[in-house]
Task: inverse folding
């Protein structure tokens, strides 16, 4: 067996260990009994240790050392590049620390659920302090001379420069308050007495219309919607507690993630060529289907008859207005409109950076959060559950993750503009529920490439580089 084949074999083992952990994580959020956490955290910790041993093994390092990347074709060179990056980075972190982080993350999420329900930050605070300290140690083991937050950000975007991302967020922070101020405000809801079963069927119909393959996937419920899986088994989740329109938009978002997973090349499963790129690219796909499709007039002209079939008295114009309303009191990120959403991200970016870098203590977080909300969004949370505990991410230990949401939204505008140029009468096709051409365009230009190219190179080739201007113009034209 030559060295590249050995590398692919190692990659397959690492990929499958990650997928097993992912399924256990999915089960924890969707189906696991309430008291199953004691065993689950041990299971995930053991898998984390085994995966760490695989990716950091001396045997894998020896295989990488004996490969000359210059002599490889493009596909094999990409496999080498991605595995070497993971090997080099993971080798800097001890197995013991990885297992501690995995176990503490599971504990912290369970404490967060209780704290959020009881509106009591003190329940989760000591867990979050311990988890944050472990993540600082993790950053220090990787690169002690660099800002810890930037080191953690690389876990989610290793190829996009932090300076480029920081600039994009600053552009949004500068431009969006004016658009938010000028936008018409409203607070409408679609009254619905549909059963949960009927709502789920409606969401499944939406996912099918976009092209989600239920022979290779499923849709379930979770308190915090997410997507998990691979090209053969893709799990998407949604939530029904926020109203029917919100459920439809959440489903559109997660279906976008799911279509990316299902569009990855099957023949390359187990190698980086069969894996998705980082989170900003992934988020660009979910945001494209949620916002540029799901919030469009054309989409509601297509989808409103499906609601009428359920006995709901409505119109495309009303549904479009509800889906795009700007509410002066956007207290939570997941319910926020397209404009204020990114001010929520800026808050998380600025506070998360201070926490990780040791410039702020965990006990200061609730008040700092509330002050930022008041400053940027002119509203103050009534309790910590709708304040600093509204998101699960930090309690998972995913510090550095939030900027990818805004970068993904910026990219979604750039990608959709490119698709409109390449696909004739795309607006008419959306109105007719004909999504195949757009889905195949995305599959050809993004999904099918896996990790063949670095994310920064993929962005450069597809849209000419990351630039917030097209996204800001999209929002200005739509809302002002």
Result:
């Amino acid at each position: 067996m030559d060295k590249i084949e050995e590398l692919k074999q190692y990659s397959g083992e690492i990929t499958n260990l990650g997928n097993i952990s992912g399924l256990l994580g999915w089960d924890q959020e969707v189906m696991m009994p309430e008291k199953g956490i004691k065993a689950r955290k041990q299971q995930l910790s053991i898998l984390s240790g085994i995966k760490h041993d695989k990716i950091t093994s001396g045997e894998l390092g020896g295989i990488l050392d004996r490969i000359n990347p210059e002599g490889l074709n493009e596909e094999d060179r990409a496999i080498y590049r991605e595995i070497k990056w993971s090997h080099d980075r993971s080798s800097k972190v001890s197995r013991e620390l990885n297992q501690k982080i995995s176990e503490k993350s599971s504990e912290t999420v369970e404490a967060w659920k209780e704290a959020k329900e009881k509106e009591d930050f003190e329940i989760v605070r000591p867990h979050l302090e311990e988890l944050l300290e472990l993540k600082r140690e993790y950053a220090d083991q990787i690169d002690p001379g660099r800002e810890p937050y930037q080191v953690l950000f690389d876990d989610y975007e290793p190829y996009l420069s932090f300076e480029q991302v920081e600039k994009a967020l600053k552009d949004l922070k500068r431009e969006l308050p004016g658009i938010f101020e000028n936008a018409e405000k409203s607070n409408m809801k679609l009254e619905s007495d549909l059963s949960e079963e009927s709502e789920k069927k409606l969401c499944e119909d939406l996912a099918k219309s976009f092209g989600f393959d239920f022979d290779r996937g499923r849709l379930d419920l979770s308190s915090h919607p997410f997507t998990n899986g691979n090209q053969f088994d893709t799990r998407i989740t949604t939530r029904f507690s926020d109203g029917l329109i919100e459920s439809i938009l959440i489903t559109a978002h997660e279906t976008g993630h799911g279509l990316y997973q299902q569009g990855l090349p099957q023949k390359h499963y187990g190698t980086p060529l069969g894996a998705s790129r980082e989170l900003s690219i992934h988020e660009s796909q979910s945001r494209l289907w949620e916002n540029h499709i799901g919030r469009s007039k054309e989409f509601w002209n297509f989808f409103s008859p499906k609601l009428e079939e359920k006995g709901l008295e409505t119109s495309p114009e009303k549904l479009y207005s509800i889906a795009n309303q700007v509410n002066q009191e956007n207290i939570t990120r997941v319910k926020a409109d397209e404009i204020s959403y990114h001010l929520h991200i800026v808050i998380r970016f600025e506070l998360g950076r201070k926490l990780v870098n040791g410039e702020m203590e965990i006990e200061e977080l609730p008040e700092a959060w509330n002050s930022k909300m008041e400053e940027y969004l002119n509203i103050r949370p009534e309790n910590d559950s709708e304040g600093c505990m509204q998101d699960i991410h930090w309690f998972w230990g995913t510090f550095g993750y939030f900027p990818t949401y805004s970068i993904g939204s910026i990219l979604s505008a750039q990608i959709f503009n490119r698709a409109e140029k390449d696909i004739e009468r795309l607006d008419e096709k959306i109105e007719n529920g004909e999504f195949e051409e757009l889905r195949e365009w995305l599959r050809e230009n993004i999904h099918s490439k896996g990790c063949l190219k670095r994310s920064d190179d993929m962005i450069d080739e597809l849209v000419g580089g990351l630039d917030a201007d097209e996204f800001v113009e999209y929002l200005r034209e739509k809302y002002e």
